[in-house]
Amino acid sequence: MAGVLSYRPVSPGTEADDDGLAVGQEWRSPGRTVTETDIVIFAGLSGDYNVLHTDAEHMKASRFGERIAHGLLGLSVQHGLLGRVLPGALGERLVAYRWKFRGPIRIGDTVHVTARIGARREAEDPGWGVVVVERRLVNQRGEVVQEGESEHLVPRPGAGSAAP
Amino acid sequence: MSAAALYFEDVEVGAELATPGLTLTGAHAAVFGGVMGDPPPPPGEAHDLLPLVLSSGLGWRVPAPPMAVLAFMGCEWRFLRPARVGDTLRTLTRVAAKRQLKDGGVVIEDRRIVNQRGEVIQSGRTTLLVARRPPAVPS
Question: Which three-class secondary structure state does DSSP give residue B70?
Fold first, then answer.
């Protein structure tokens, strides 16, 4: 699959606007192996010590067999992975996330992100546009473990772009 | 003896919860940047996802027993204002709806994160899968 190491779009999309962001443009991120360390640090940072993430003995008896990553750890890893690939303009003003947690991320799973610009429209404030990025977090078996979309405010080239 | 967890049967629609505050520090921002794999934010700023992450743990710091969450199913979330280092954040939640399933139940919560000035910086809706009360063990 193209784009894994090149950090370039898999598909350039069509009808790019002046800012170079086109509906249909696709990316694939590098992979990342989610480790026990990630989960321990995330529990300490967030304060979410649910047994799902912190009690190995309890989880032995569960259908997962082992601790699983916090859902929001997956979302955060996903955001960071894609942030290494997406154009910088999409990194500035995050407006919304609509997100589904589909399945567990187990210790040792390697995940990557595929993403696509699903839509773009004018923002209420002239000089800004809204870009919708569809995102899927996929594990090493090709299973979609999380998916959804984010909305970003992007300055319109040429327009005076005082922050709304 | 207080209950160890709040099970699906115990969840009341309309119930509200306000957490204690947590002051966002540069250490939170730096650790989160490391876990996420993003470059560290400029000094004084925090990543937009960090308040949402911190709010997930704030719910554990109330006197009430924690909800017996089996899985985080989804969220619709809006980022209204930036969070800055030094802000003190609290989470306000309200149970909006619940629906029973075979092995548990779905609980939908409206959640707001407010800062020390009472401004809502992020808000949205989270959907949780919550365990049903396990059958009583005969003594």
Answer: strand
Give the pTM: 0.91
Half-sphere exposure of A113 (CA within 13 A, CB side): 28
B57 DSSP 8-state letter: H
Give the strand pairing for B88-100 and B22-23.
antiparallel
Name residues 20-59 of chain B within 8 A of A (Cβ).
Answer: 22, 28, 31-32, 34-38, 48-49, 52-54, 56-58
Rounded-to-integer distance, Cα B130 and Cα B124, Å: 19
- Domains of chain A, residue spans: 26-155
- Give the domain A26-155 fold: Thiol Ester Dehydrase; Chain A (3.10.129)
Q: What is the pLDDT of residues B76-110, one digit of tens each?
A: 999 999 999 999 999 999 999 999 998 889 999 99
Closest CB from B58, B69, B74 relative to A100: B74
